[in-house]
Amino acid sequence: MESPANLLIVVDAGHGGWDNGAQFEGRLEKDDNLRLALAVERALRAQGVDVLMTRSTDVFVPLNDRARMANEADADLFISLHRNSFPEQTEGTKGVENFIYLTAPLETSGRAAQLVLVELNEVGVQRMIGVSRGNYAVLRRTNMPAMLLEMGFINNEEDNRLFDEKLEEYAQAIARGILAYFGINYRTPSQPLPSGEPVVENEIYDMQELLEQRYGFGLRPTGRFDEATKKAAVIALQIELNGAYDAQIPVDGILGPRTLNAIRPFRQGSKGGLVALLQVLLILNGYDPGEVDGNFGPKTSAALRFFQRDHFLTPDGIAGPKTFAALVGA
Ligand SMILES: [Zn+2]
What we know:
Blueprint: E1 8-13, E2 23-24, E3 27-28, H1 29-45, E4 50-53, H2 63-72, E5 77-84, E6 96-100, H3 106-123, E7 128-133, H4 137-141, E8 146-153, H5 157-165, H6 167-181, H7 201-215, H8 227-245, H9 257-262, H10 273-284, H11 298-310, H12 321-327
Parallel strand pairs: 1-4, 1-5, 5-8, 6-7
Antiparallel strand pairs: 2-3, 6-8
Helix pairs in contact: 1-6, 3-6, 7-8, 7-10, 8-10
Bound molecules: zinc ion.
Zinc ion binds next to loops.
């Protein structure tokens, strides 16, 4: 079985910039493709998979460049995302179709494309057209298993409704299908708790006890991530930074520039007290990083990316000053 950490997937949002792709009543294919591509990127990264985007904004990227990027990065799989269109409404102009190259082997590209469709079918589509062969440049010029997914017809109202309503589910289905191809189990991402809702009291209580045991400054466990707990977390951060980097920050529980500037960003693979504190903070915020063991593994990375995404930070899995500020509610 592969490890997600060893995989590089290229997610290619079709068209972009002056190239709108298909359009229907003001709806542009390039925008739909990018929305889905960004959601697929998030879904894959949340599983600890590395992703290369051929574009992350509304820019034009030549087809040759898209394929070259994937080849030069020695990617493991290439997926191009599109919306289909047809000049006139007929019975066939609806549903999902996944293309592989004319001569692509069925046991690689064909199987990967099929697995993605199986997962999309689970979510529900208007019609499953299936895997087809097509002479697309990005499929012809890429050296790895590759597919071009036409995610419904842009000139079919029901396909559009499904696309908008199920975007996140479709993105996760695509990620599941890709991981299945590599023999990796998809882990259900930890769901962030709605703000203001009662949090998992026991877990917060446990973290408050842990903070008190480890740093000992009289925090009284309440089962709620309250102001006293936030201040305690900042004190813990200051103690850890002083210990790790001899930062000599006054331990006052105030998250000022001196404390923030002392944070050296760290990521998956790191170990130690700061990692354990990050795990405690993720749990306090309602995310699931796994055991508080001071080992920054894929589960902690996935939880961190979810937290970052939900707080409008770059979901890069890197714990830096902005992330810590958000974690303590600053
Ligand atoms: Zn297209």
